[in-house]
User: Fold this.
Amino acid sequence: MDLGIRGKKAIVCAGSKGLGFGCAEALAEAGVDLILNARTEGPLEDAAARLRELGVSVTPVACDITTQNGQAQVLAAAGSPDILVNNAGGPPPGMWTDWDREDFIKALDANMLTPIALMKAVMPSMMERGWGRVVNITSQSVKAPIAVLGLSNSARAGLTGYVAGTSRQVAENGVTINNLQPGIHATDRAVSLDGGVAKAQGISLEEAKAQRCAMIPARRYGTPQEFGATCAFLCSQHAGFIVGQNILLDGGAVNSTM
Assistant:
């Protein structure tokens, strides 16, 4: 399928690996030029080189997107992008007794206020041109809260509420905002989580992964490639009637009718 976005320009945050890279790769395959952000320069440059092999322009910007300075650097490099993919690492796990005000402020800055700031910065020009796409990578925990991820539950739920209202205000100008809610995917994050389980239970990494897969109806982890393909579709010319939606990519792990 031709996504109809060849030649457009996208910001992809946290795009050097994992789900962010999956989104960047799928957009590059569709002919989209990229402003690629990540914190660490080496992996970012490696990712940019791989993506350029797909025949698109890639401008790497190594910075912390959760800071005002980092946001300014990315926006300066992007100019007037057509597509924004918001992504940032989640806050650390723990229990409700572990978190104080400052922990919540950090989580809100990274996973709610940063994507809001980027949307406010890029959407006016999208609206003027009558076309734009915003995809926020959130979490399945918005749909079904995960106790040990209370910081993430809170911040991402706040972003989801903001998108629910804002998306319906900008849709008439050809700009869509939607959220992708990933479950477990085969990324470094999954390896880290499985490693924690393996250490706590005294089992192998393979056994820890098998335990988690057994709880997923699809009986496997998702891949960055299939996640990226979904992101690219939401950014395509075919998705203009999808507004303010939260799309689960979790292999059926969240047991819900709606």
